[in-house]
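testing teh design pipeline on a random one, pls ignore if ur not involved
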């Protein structure tokens, strides 16, 4: 698959103060809901170093259509519901990967 076909979703999650560890645990324990999707290429959870209680979730998909199918599914609503009690705000950005270069450390 070429990088230009990869559909990327980035979620910014503001978590209630003091709930970060619980959010991370629930996210981790239910991550296979996303990675088990046939069109999912992988996902990452990152914690901001610049903003308190902010997390970023990045997931890559084979194409937008199959992501949107999952987004409208009952399985997605259930997954989102597990994370909702910890979240105070959130935004989503979607994009296509245009170029990707593997760094020296990854090639070693």
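output:
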């Amino acid at each position: 698959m070429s990088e230009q076909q990869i559909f990327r979703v980035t979620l910014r999650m503001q978590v209630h103060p003091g709930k970060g560890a619980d959010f991370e645990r629930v996210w981790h324990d239910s991550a296979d809901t996303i990675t088990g999707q046939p069109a999912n290429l992988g996902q990452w959870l990152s914690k901001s170093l610049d903003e308190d209680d902010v997390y970023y979730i990045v997931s890559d998909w084979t194409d937008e259509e199959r992501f949107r199918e999952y987004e409208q599914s009952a399985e997605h609503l259930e997954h989102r519901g597990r994370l909702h009690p910890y979240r105070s705000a959130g935004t989503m950005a979607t994009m296509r990967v245009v170029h990707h270069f593997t760094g020296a450390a990854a090639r070693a």
